[in-house]
UniProtKB/TrEMBL annotation:
GO terms for cellular component: plasma membrane. It comes from Prauserella flavalba. This is Gluconate transporter. The chain crosses the membrane at residues 6-37, 57-79, 99-125, 137-155, 175-194, 255-274, 286-306, 327-344, 364-397, 409-432, 444-468. InterPro entries: Glcn_transporter.
């Protein structure tokens, strides 16, 4: 009966979000309460599990998400992403740009909201497309899709990555190392395969592109879509800032300087992870490599940079936007932890643990595939990468002890599945269609198909990693 009620709870969450358009936070709480009561936890036990699950995940990733949100908001305010893309276009030329752009977006900018990355990069992609030949817009659209969304689920400090790692208790330094291998490689291979398909006539300019002047797509005023819109439902995108009206900075900041608030924390976290793996015991290195401290250093650097280049009002607005976004991001992440805690109290781990474990004759690769399928199905139904990833991790976290698979590999498999086939039930889909100037058919190819392709490519890479580690 535990399996039945858990299935009903998860289906209820999916249907509430998808059919009745209930906010994911409310849907997850309803599902958690239903599961707790039907599993015999009682009213007190159910609410206690929900509260404790929320508190545990907040203790794990709360500060990381908060610092990351503010960091991304400040970096957006000084135009770091736009500067990088412009430099790449000048240095590499339009034909190499898709690969460079996908790599940069997946490896460097997961700290910035995916919708903000799209708003900034889409006009630049459209301007470069005519110089790339007949399928230029399609190639750039696929590169944006691969770079932005692959980085979101694999690379620290993307929210999808941080949330999955927190729920599965994977050290963020470990996730950083694996993500920097899986993420950019997945993005590059996806763009390469996408390019091969385009050469075989997969794209029809007349049917897949709209007739629109690129000037109409420039984000010169107004607001970008809110963080609730980034991947369909919840605002839990990358750990970054919210787009506001483009503002003039007081001083031009060199690109190398504007990237330091991201690069320095990543180097600190990587150094801490490497020294720990090497068996080096140093309290100083452990402190400097602590992810919370590292992201705080990045936040401090971004704050100083923004203070020196922006006016006081603009700086205050950037911080306010970050604070406002932090609340809903933390809430959805915490409630995802609550669902996992309730599942953990139901005894489901004893039921499913034997099914997933190697003792039951289920090979590691099959376990990876099952985890991938759970996350993929949730994403197809809900339309939100983050909710799918958090829910899948919450389902599987309680049975981690019975799985003959490293936690980091399971985390990668969940991220890979959650990436699968972003489609029309996601607001990001319609943002993509409008900003890139493609038809619904074109978006289904350059976004839905490309995310499915990236998901499958990453699944193969994760399977290879599982054999090596």
């Amino acid at each position: 009966m535990v399996v039945l009620h858990t299935t009903i709870a998860i289906l209820a969450v999916v249907l509430l979000i998808l059919v009745t358009r209930v906010d994911p936070v409310i849907a997850l709480v309803i599902g958690s309460i239903y599961l707790g009561l039907t599993a015999g936890l009682g009213f007190d036990g159910t609410m206690k599990a929900i509260a404790e699950g929320f508190g545990e995940i907040m203790a794990e990733v709360g500060l990381l998400i908060g610092f990351g949100v503010l960091l991304g908001s400040l970096l957006f305010s000084v135009g770091a992403l736009q500067k990088l893309v412009e430099k790449l276009l000048k240095a590499l030329g339009p034909r190499r740009l898709p690969y460079a752009l996908a790599t940069a977006l997946s490896a460097i900018f997961p700290s910035i909201y995916v919708d903000v990355q799209l708003v900034l990069a889409a006009p630049l992609a459209r301007s470069a497309a005519p110089r790339m030949g007949r399928n230029g817009l399609a190639m750039m659209g696929g590169a944006l899709t691969a770079g932005i969304l692959v980085g979101y689920v694999f690379v620290v400090p993307g929210l999808g990555t941080v949330a999955i790692a927190g729920l599965l208790d994977v050290p963020l330094g470990t996730m950083l190392i694996y993500g920097f291998v899986i993420g950019p490689i997945t993005a590059l291979l996806t763009v390469f395969l996408w390019g091969r398909l385009l050469k075989r006539g997969f794209w029809n300019t007349a049917k897949d592109e709209t007739e629109r002047d690129s000037d109409e797509l420039e984000p010169t005023g107004g607001s970008a879509p809110s963080p609730r819109d980034q991947d369909g439902q919840d605002g839990a995108s990358g750990s970054g800032g919210v787009a506001t009206e483009r503002e003039t900075v007081r001083t031009t900041v060199p690109l190398t300087i504007s990237l330091l608030p991201i690069v320095v924390p990543l180097l600190l976290i990587a150094t801490g992870a490497i020294t720990e793996a090497a068996g080096v015991e140093s309290s100083v290195l452990a402190f400097l490599g602590d992810p919370v401290f590292a992201l705080f250093v990045g936040l401090l650097g971004a704050y100083v940079l923004a203070k020196r280049t922006l006016g006081r009002d603009q700086l205050g607005e950037a911080m306010s936007k970050g604070f406002n976004a932090t609340g809903q991001i933390l809430l959805i992440t915490g409630i995802g932890g609550s669902l996992g805690a309730v599942i953990g109290e139901t005894g489901l781990d004893k039921v499913l643990g034997g099914f997933f474990s190697a003792d039951a004759g289920v090979p590691t690769l099959v376990t990876i595939l099952l985890a991938w399928v759970v996350a993929a199905v949730l994403h197809l139904a809900i339309g939100s990468i983050s909710v799918a990833a958090i829910t899948a991790a919450g389902i599987l976290a309680p049975i981690m002890g019975g799985l003959d698979i490293p936690a980091e590999v399971l985390a990668l498999a969940i991220g890979s599945g959650a990436l699968f086939a972003l489609q029309v039930n996601s607001n990001f889909f319609w943002m993509f269609q409008t900003l890139l100037g493609v038809t619904t058919r074109g978006a289904l190819k350059a976004l839905t198909f490309v995310t499915a392709l990236a998901s499958v490519v990453s699944l193969v890479l994760v399977s290879v990693v599982s054999v090596v580690v």
